[in-house]
Amino acid sequence: MGLILERVRMELGHLARKATGEKTRRRGAAIEAFEAARADLRPGDLAIDLGANIGLITETLAETGADVIAFEPDPHAFELLSARLAGRANVTLIQAAAAAQAGTLPLMRHRDFANDPDRRTVSSTLVQGKRRMEGGETVEVEVKDFVAYLHALNRPVKLLKIDIEGSEVALLERLLGDPVAARIGHVFVETHERAVISLAARTRALKRRAARMDRPVINWDWR
């Protein structure tokens, strides 16, 4: 029995390493694709950062000279984002969440937010059921209808980055069903079905749907 258990452990370890290696490979490829798309940005182009947090990605996009619009709902993160991008004439900062519908919603923060707000703000979410959010504080934030925003903007979007802690599913379900999606070139999205299990089936359906579309080109392995 001991030998059998040992073999099972070895096989599980092999599968775990294989999965981890594949995940790392995909993420590496996504970063390379993002860098290529970023390098193709020129002044006059438009990039949008949904879930900008403290602005690390926003800043790299702004350095290309392209116009950049960054959405961030968490007040603490937005304060840091504003400080980082201060003086950038080509950057527009919007203190709101981008989602499928407009309104006002409670933004849930990590349960350890108070101990390390600069780090934990990255986990803030509008979606119920995300791990490690139980017992955390909430703050009311503005939510903008992103599809309506794109229609009003009436500009091609060369690069769109989405990291909105689970809200990406509902947003993309709406976006991919609207003609405005054809104005977008590349999308880099982080999905959160591991943290919010209820999103898994909808995420798989979105990937199948996107695979049948010419535009936008979506990379699902961001970060």
TrEMBL record:
Methyltransferase FkbM domain span: 49-194
Pfam families per record: Methyltransf_21
GO terms, molecular function: methyltransferase activity
GO biological process terms held by the UniProt record: methylation
Keyword terms of this UniProt record: Methyltransferase, Transferase
Domain of life: Bacteria
NCBIfam families for the chain: fkbM_fam
PANTHER family reported in the protein's UniProt record: EXPRESSED PROTEIN (PTHR34203:SF13), METHYLTRANSFERASE, FKBM FAMILY PROTEIN (PTHR34203)
Protein's UniProt name: FkbM family methyltransferase
Organism of this sequence: Rhodovulum bhavnagarense
